[in-house]
Automatic annotation (TrEMBL):
Residue ranges annotated for the Cyclic nucleotide-binding domain, each copy included: 15-124
GO molecular function (one): DNA-binding transcription factor activity
Domain HTH crp-type stretches: 149-217
Highest taxon above the source species: Bacteria
SUPFAM superfamilies: cAMP-binding domain-like, Winged helix' DNA-binding domain
Keywords in alphabetical order: DNA-binding, Kinase, Transcription, Transcription regulation, Transferase
Keyword presence, Glycoprotein: no
Keyword rRNA processing belongs to the record: no
Designated name of the protein: cAMP-binding domain of CRP or a regulatory subunit of cAMP-dependent protein kinases
GO cellular component terms, A-Z: cytosol
UniProt organism field: Jhaorihella thermophila
Length: 234
């Protein structure tokens, strides 16, 4: 049985928050909680989809391997984010592979449990659609950030999304492979390094795989200001 703290984290995830309240606890009781070490495979491309995965702690990458052996990163997921909804409900194979890029805690909601709940209560269908729409909206926002924000501002937004509080100072964990963050933000690794340097005046210090944020509100102001002003501070 999962530790209660994992269930508490799961309750804050978008996927669980989207469900009708009366279904949350029954679903958590039937979910599977797993630990993965860094570099451990979660599932492989073309394996039968097991269910919806929710990241409770750590970092997970989704990737595909081309015929020539090159690896293409499809997505990087952190605490509170979920993946595999659509393919699990289709009862099809995974179109990508998943790997824990840090020690990670995941919750898996079996597809059979979701389908059963959807048959019992149509509101569950609406909730899953709402969560999927929010994912899509997030992708649109990422595209907008690429067009309208500097690289440093995009990194600032990313760090803010990892904070567990709204004000004061905060320290967030990052994967050791910074190229994963760069790929998620649509940047080159060298551009990410420059962006981290630009954030020093905004109170951000990078130490190995940790980002120390001196003042969350100050960093938020930097992320939201006019890009022309943000560039001048680099």
């Amino acid at each position: 049985m999962a530790h209660e703290k994992h269930k508490d984290i799961a309750r804050t995830s978008l996927f669980i928050r989207s469900l009708p309240d009366q279904h949350v606890e029954p679903l958590l009781e039937r979910a599977i909680f797993r630990h993965y070490e860094r570099g451990e495979t979660i599932f492989l491309q073309d394996e039968p989809a097991e269910g919806v995965h929710v990241v409770l702690d750590g970092w997970v990458k989704l990737y595909r391997v081309s015929p020539n052996g090159a690896e293409a990163i499809v997505g990087v997921f952190a605490r509170g984010e979920s993946f595999g909804e659509a393919v699990a409900l289709k009862n099809g194979p995974y179109p990508v592979s998943a790997e824990a890029v840090t020690a990670s805690e995941l919750m898996v909601v079996p597809a059979s449990v979701l389908v059963e709940m959807m048959h019992e209560d149509p509101d569950v269908c609406v909730s899953i659609l709402a969560a999927t729409f929010t994912h899509l909206h997030g992708l649109v926002e990422q595209l907008q950030q690429i067009k309208a924000q500097t690289g440093a501002q995009r990194v600032a937004e990313f760090l803010l999304s990892l904070c567990s509080q709204d004000s004061g100072g905060c320290t967030v964990d990052l994967p050791y492979d910074k190229a994963l963050i760069a790929g998620r933000l649509g940047m080159k690794p060298e551009s990410l390094s420059r962006a981290f340097s630009r954030l020093k005046p905004a109170g951000v210090t990078i130490r190995k795989n940790h980002a120390q944020i001196a003042d969350i509100e100050r960093l938020r102001d930097y992320a939201e200001e006019d890009p022309a002003n943000a560039w001048s501070k680099g």
